[in-house]
Please model this.
Amino acid sequence: MKVLFVEDDKIIASGLCYSLSQEGYEVTHCLNAAEAETAMGKNSYDVAILDINLPDGSGYDICRRIKEKEDIPVIFLTAIDDEVNVVMGLDMGADDYITKPFRIRELLSRIKSVTRRYGKAESRRTVLEFGGLKIDTAQAKVFKGSREISLTSLEYRLLLIFANNQGQVLSRNQILERLWDFAGDFVNDNTLTVYIKRLREKIEDDIQNPRIIKTVRGIGYKGGS
Model:
């Protein structure tokens, strides 16, 4: 599923772009209204996530342009002070809004909700194959053969990191950075070791000789071959 994401805060944008791509979305990030206009002229999108306040305009203008071009769901990102003004956006045809700061899981839930109303949810169905596992990112489910493996939210995100970087050696710091969440939930180095162990217990045939998530001594971990 293609996402148009317009946000001028590079720190917020970086984290959100990574999280969305990990969930199987194809994200086009624009820093301002002009970039968004160019992107809309070149591509069609399935959903738009728009910051209201931009350096060269507003999310309202982009929302209006989107609705003139095609009928896709629009979600506004707003600061608490802007919350009242979101009514204007909703009157223009926007579908939802979310207030900063927010949890990435909350935003993902909102995206699923609005796309479901537009009948677009199935179009983003993506199944990743990794180490004999099948990861259905549309439903956030993991299967080993015909058996579904129950993972916590953090275990699932950890597995996605390895699945999306198969064959690459990732340092512990790289993994920790990618587990970052907008809610400010951080996993420290010691906790990461625990979560790797728990994940292995659920997905490996032999935890003493892991094949799916391998330890690279002195560096970190490697997923797959």
